[in-house]
């Protein structure tokens, strides 16, 4: 265990911040992809139902 915690803490903080940023970005991208997929599915179903009703 190092005795000088100030020398190690900033590197660890940068690493954790980078991991947090990447995970937050990935989760946001996956969420947007999922929402767009659901929206396309709903619009397609609505259009199909409308086409069958005509």
Structure description:
- Keywords: Membrane, Transmembrane, Transmembrane helix.
- The chain crosses the membrane at residues 15-36.
- This protein is mainly α.
- Helix content is 91%, strand content 0%.
- It is built from 1 helix and no strands.
- It has one helix spanning 5-53.
- The N and C termini lie far apart (75 Å).
What oligomeric state best describes the polypeptide chains here?
single chain
Q: What is the beta-strand fraction?
A: under 5%
Helix content: over 70%
> Number of DSSP helices?
1
Question: Roughly how many Å is the radius of gyration?
Answer: 23 Å
**Major sheet description:** none
Keywords: Membrane, Transmembrane, Transmembrane helix
In short:
By secondary structure, the chain is mostly helical. It is 91% helix and 0% strand.
Q: What are the key terms here?
A:
54 residues, mainly alpha, 1 helix, 0% strand
What is the fold's blueprint, element by element?
Layout: H1 5-53
């Amino acid at each position: 265990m190092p005795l000088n915690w100030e020398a190690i803490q900033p590197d660890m903080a940068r690493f954790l911040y980078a991991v947090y940023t990447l995970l937050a970005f990935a989760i946001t991208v996956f969420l947007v992809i999922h929402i767009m997929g659901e929206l396309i599915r709903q619009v397609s179903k609505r259009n199909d139902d409308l086409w069958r009703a005509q």
